[in-house]
Q: What sequence folds into this?
């Protein structure tokens, strides 16, 4: 029989170590010409390095990269597109340490094919694609000038041999992505955009003869149209995803005639915000069919467009979330990383001809008993200005415990980062850490989130710092009113932009009993004036042009209203964070101390924006649980490492 115990105090087999060491760190499944399956695997126990894995046909997975290699690029700081196959048994990858490109042939040592820059990591590469001749790679290069200043972004071609100088194919625009060569290697396509746009605001699609890149011309896009993933089809047309009709749909264009065709007309998104390079949400199949990851109301599923057209066909797979970069194809087989509310992300191969679905077991992953798995359900709730916002509610779930009659669970409001991103219904081990102990969670897709079309995404334009935290508050109050959360024990947490929503909610509202900020933005003005190039004008759209509207930046920065901060908070910060520097968290900590509010501050040397080390994440989970226990008045089960809480009587 289930034991009766207060919410929050339930014993759980999901330790912080189990959570921090597994789940959700797989990406980029690709089938090679020799039928070997490749993917990238994060290693939190090894400092978060990215290893490249290979499973030969009929064999077992082995790491292809040498011990210590870290296939990760720092272009745009967020990276993506850090590796690509260059023929059977050969891979190219960007090494995180020096940011140079390396060619690795199985059984040999990696060989650098790009020059060593004058200053460390001053030349960075991403979005790699090998030319059809197998002798050249085209990619995005980011050049950081000596002595500082804004980086220059380019599209370049590099010889795979490592001999010869890189050739600049496109330059002069603020940003580039998706350099793609036609099947005959004769034409180049790419996307580009300029400040103050972000790629989900407005991008352009260009093409040029590879022999004469100066003859480039624009095919599509503009300041109010987002273009994603250009790919050359077997028919010679250039395919791309555009949100010109309010949803990211697929189009094809003949570069010679300019004749264009809309291939899908979904009221759903067939792309996602381009935070990372190398994204792929669709893939060509034999016979002219196209497979898509289709996102409707933030849930992701796999569909197919048949060669004759017509509505997309749901493949009926049990997945609701796909890992970056979504999908790749070879013939009629698809490779991807996917998961569901019942299962971790896993490397998966689908044979569309036979219907066979192969899900690779995650090596070293400790399975979780279904009795401790919380199944999310979508929620909608009324918010400001007569609008509706969305989220996913995860109830407490523990087969061994139940709460005393009449008790409602404490609620964690999870605010996602970005803020242009979205939460998906998923098997999230970190969420299960909380729900198996008796917490409820609502993962909020506040106005401005992706996955609901462009109109919903643009509700954050000019309103960041207002509608996001308002929606988090309204989600919590909605669940408290329905009896699914204890209105006296509402908490909020989030990282980066989610940390900003957390700090805003604690400063400008009085509804939360406690909060946890992970490298959260406290000073929007500082973010506008002291951040990396990719996001340096992001806030022009989210808040307003700077410095013309400096008044709005100050009005929406918790750091300027610290006297209002009366809710207990715990703050986590990487000391090498170049996106949100540590001084922002430290200022908030000083304010909490001056106000006499219970608080804790946990900083980590060697961590950047987004924690990667297993020991860091273990420390965070245990410290946060301990903090909530002291503030909300329950005793966490088991042995966890506490944290010093200042101003706690």
A:
């Amino acid at each position: 029989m289930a034991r009766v115990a207060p919410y929050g105090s339930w014993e759980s087999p999901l330790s912080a170590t189990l959570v921090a060491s597994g789940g959700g760190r797989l990406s980029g499944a690709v089938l090679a010409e020799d039928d070997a399956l490749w993917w990238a695997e994060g290693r939190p126990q090894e400092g978060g390095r990215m290893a490249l894995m290979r499973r030969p046909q009929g064999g077992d997975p082995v790491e292809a990269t040498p011990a210590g290699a870290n296939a990760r690029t720092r272009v745009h700081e967020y990276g993506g597109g850090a590796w690509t196959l260059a023929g059977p048994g050969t891979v190219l990858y960007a090494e995180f340490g020096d940011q140079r490109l390396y060619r690795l042939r199985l059984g040999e040592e990696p060989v650098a094919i790009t020059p060593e820059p004058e200053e460390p990591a001053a030349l960075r590469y991403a979005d790699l694609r090998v030319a059809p001749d197998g002798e050249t790679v085209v990619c995005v290069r980011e050049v950081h000038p000596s002595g500082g200043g804004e980086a220059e972004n380019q599209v370049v071609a590099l010889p795979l041999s490592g001999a010869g100088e890189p050739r600049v194919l496109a330059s002069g625009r603020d940003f580039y992505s998706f350099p793609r060569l036609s099947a005959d290697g004769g034409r180049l396509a790419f996307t580009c955009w300029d400040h103050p746009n972000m790629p989900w605001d407005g991008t352009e699609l260009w093409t040029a003869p590879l022999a004469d890149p100066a003859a480039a011309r624009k095919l599509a896009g503009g300041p109010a149209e987002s273009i994603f993933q250009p790919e050359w089809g077997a028919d010679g047309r250039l395919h791309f995803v555009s949100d010109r009709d309010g949803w990211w749909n697929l189009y094809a264009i003949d570069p010679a005639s300019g004749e264009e065709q809309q291939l899908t007309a979904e009221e759903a998104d067939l792309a996602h915000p381009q935070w990372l390079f190398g994204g792929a949400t669709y893939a060509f199949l034999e016979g002219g069919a196209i497979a898509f990851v289709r996102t409707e109301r933030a849930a992701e599923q796999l569909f197919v467009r048949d060669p004759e057209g017509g509505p997309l066909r749901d493949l009926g797979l049990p997945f609701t979330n796909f890992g970056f970069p979504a999908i790749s194809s070879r013939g009629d087989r698809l490779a991807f990383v996917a998961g569901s509310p019942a299962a971790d992300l896993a490397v998966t191969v689908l044979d569309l001809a036979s219907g066979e679905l192969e899900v690779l077991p995650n090596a070293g992953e400790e399975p979780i008993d279904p009795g401790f798995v919380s199944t999310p359900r979508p929620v909608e709730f009324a918010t400001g200005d007569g609008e509706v916002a969305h989220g996913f509610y995860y109830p407490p779930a523990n087969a061994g415990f139940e709460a005393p009659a009449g008790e409602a669970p404490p609620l964690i409001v999870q605010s996602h980062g970005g803020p242009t991103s979205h939460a998906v219904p998923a098997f999230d081990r970190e969420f299960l850490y909380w729900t198996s102990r008796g917490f409820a969670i609502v993962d909020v897709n506040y106005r401005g989130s992706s996955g609901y079309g462009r109109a919903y995404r643009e509700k954050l334009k000019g309103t960041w710092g207002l509608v996001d935290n308002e929606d988090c508050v309204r989600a919590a109050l909605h669940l408290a009113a329905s009896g699914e959360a204890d209105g006296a024990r509402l908490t909020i947490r989030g990282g980066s932009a989610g940390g900003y929503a957390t700090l805003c909610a604690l400063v400008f509202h009085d509804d939360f009993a406690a909060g946890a900020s992970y490298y959260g933005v406290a000073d929007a003005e500082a973010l506008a004036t002291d951040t990396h190039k990719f996001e340096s004008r992001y806030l022009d759209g989210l808040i307003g042009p700077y410095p013309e509207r400096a008044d709005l930046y100050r009005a929406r920065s918790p750091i300027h209203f610290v006297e209002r901060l009366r809710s207990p908070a715990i703050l986590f910060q990487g000391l090498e964070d170049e996106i949100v520097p540590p001084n922002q968290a430290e200022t908030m900590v000083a304010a909490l101390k001056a106000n006499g509010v219970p608080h804790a501050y946990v900083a980590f040397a060697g961590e950047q924006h987004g924690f990667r080390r297993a020991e860091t994440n273990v420390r965070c989970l245990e410290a946060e649980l301990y903090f909530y226990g002291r503030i909300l008045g329950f005793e966490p089960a088991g042995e966890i490492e506490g944290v010093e809480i200042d101003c706690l009587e």
Notes: The chain has two domains: 3-12+368-632, 39-280. The first helix runs from residue 16 to 20.
